[in-house]
Sequence to fold (367 residues):
Amino acid sequence: MEPLRDDDPTTIGGYALVCRIGDGGMGQVFLGESPAGHQAAVKVIKPSILDEDTRVRFRSEVESLRTVYGPFVAAFVGADADADPPWLAVEYVNGPDLRSFVADYGTLPLVETASLGALLAEGLGTVHEAGLLHRDLKPQNILLAAYGPKVIDFGLAVLAERRTALTATGFVVGSVLCMPPEQARGEHQLDRSADVYGLGASLLFAATGHYPYEGRTWQAVALNIEDPAVPPDLTGLPSELRPLVTEMLAADPCARPTLPEVTERLVRVIRGQGLTAFQAKRRLTDRTPELALPQLPPQPSAGADTVPPYTPAVLDVAAEEDDEQAPAPEPDEPDDPDGPRPVGVRPSAPLRIAERIRAGYARGARF
Fold:
């Protein structure tokens, strides 16, 4: 995250912008805060990629996104395709993306990788059932939260895809490192298997820290992806995951497994390690670091020049009294000199507060 720049807007769609989360070819992403304090990730779309035809498609995508809900998909919050600039707001996930996590903390072990894949496959399935594809699944679009992974940026790659189809035939959209061969060739009629490939590439990265194909330029990477004679690099991938990931990265889309099959086989890997799927998820989330939550600075009340002095409340006084050592009562002579001796017990702060209130009413307070 970084502070807002001088030329950044301060509000978008009713959200006060707190800071920059990131930026890319489609625009900037800001952390926004509603008047009531709800935080959302606000993506401001560059007007240059939206002609009128694409705005129509954006509206259609937004309507589809409204229907998508699942525990592993960042929830839709709001959007306005007719605004200047257009914007889309989704649930803010307070966690690192998978690429940053691997760079900072290292690769994931076998069980955690399998759990990540099973959970993401379920999340992708929810979106596919709503008639949407991701088209750009990659480690940067997988966020690791304290309660599980979240997929972000659904439906946005199609906007750039539509734009390039009108202006530059064969232009490639998406992250080439996780791109299936059919997408690298510039084909736009993609199906669910394209997201299966992206998931396989992301799982390979989670477990090994590298992608199926790498090179000095994106063109070199794309050529290797398109060549069926060049197999993906699975160096370092645990043997338990190798057969499934190999199928997920198949050059032929029809040879890739479905998302339910991916989930089933990854759960089988987890059980082979003597764990349940829930236990594996707990191991995954236990690795997720807690990030500081940025927020807007407090705004002073209208007309308030000074902060009123602090006056301790009854609860504060009682709490302070708890910090003092209560004097031990004089012990009686025990009948059994070897038995347990009495210990002084003092009422807790809430009980003493209740006693004070009852005493006040007993002195004639009206009900």
User: Anything to note?
Assistant: Residues 130 and 215 are 36 Å apart (CA to CA). The longest strand covers residues 15-24.
